[in-house]
Amino acid sequence: MQRVFLSYRRSDSLTATERIYDHLCMAFGPDTVFKDVNSIALGDDFRNAIAAAVGESRVLLVIIGDQWLDFVGESGTRRLDEADDSVRIEVESALTRKIPVIPVLVGQRAMPSAKALPESLSELSFRNAIRIRADPDFKGDMERLCSRIRSSLTTVDVASRLFRSWMTRRTLLGVAFAGIVSVAALRLMRPRANFEIVEKETGQLVLRDFKVLYKLNDATQALAVANGFGGKCTIPENFTEPDSVECYGYVFTREIVGNRLILDRNMNDDEFEKAIRPARDTYDLPTPTDFELAKSSVIDPDNFALVVENESSDVIDLIFLYHDPRDGALQADSWELIPPPIQPHSERSISGFFHRQPGYFVIFASTHGRTARHLLSANLYSGNSPKLKVVATANGLSGRLAW
Q: I want to staple 60 with a disulfide (CB 3.0 to 4.6 A). Which of 15, 94, 137, 173 is the partner?
């Protein structure tokens, strides 16, 4: 069964769709994702073929770029207004069948309004959309999309699957055992389970890619692997229990609470800090002017404190990159993580960390164990009692500094 259907317009979002498709294939497997109507056999009625493919899907993604709404065909009319437009047929089929539809915005255009859409597609404007941005945000955005898709895919008819399993055993055991389903057989075919990985220190989901190694419930007791994304993963049936979790920056405590696998931060060799460090191409280095201003600072670092106000609803980790203005070089020990993480809607004063020469700081924030994002760059010693406010925006966390 094709469980994820990608509806897109080639002239509008081919490149973005191919990248999204590749990520979804890694997350759910290539047999789960249907991308292109070019797979329809010659001579088939493409309207029926599309309707059939959509009908086999659990969720439909509508990839909406800048030209998706207004693209004009050879007839000179907007393609979306034409009854034979494949994109229109795909979305209509999903809406009619009450299949979950997720608009995926890949350009600058906002979500189309109901008035801008054909009447048969007007319901699309009321579906909650997600925007997939270019790097460095692509991976995090895709993790959120995969999480939403996974919630649609995990609605499983357990009774039906157990019945099929029972019928298989009935045939194998023979007529003498017909109608008998033993407790052992039910355990052997344990339904698939959905697990979440949760950080022990904050109690929040860890939104990183990870692997769960689990024991098969057979004579070999061999280990199999299930890949997880966006803090969640699904382990197929026929397993006993998760054996270990591999997630960069974390260690598995072997504590399982319900469907939650509890992870602890791996502070050995600064592994957690390294896991959330941003890539070099995601922020700018200080300019020569910045360094000159930093050199002229007269604030005594030993008596300096930075007040951080977390106005977001997430627990945040702050990580600082320090630049020495004396030679403009990055020092080997310039990355520093501020423990412990700062709770949502709280304020904290940070002081001991700043016992160093005046210099230039690049400040980043991380949530849910993800790669930290750049908040701001500043010469913190240019005034007394600075306050860093961290706020949540549509594009993630943002920071502003005030004295």
A: 94
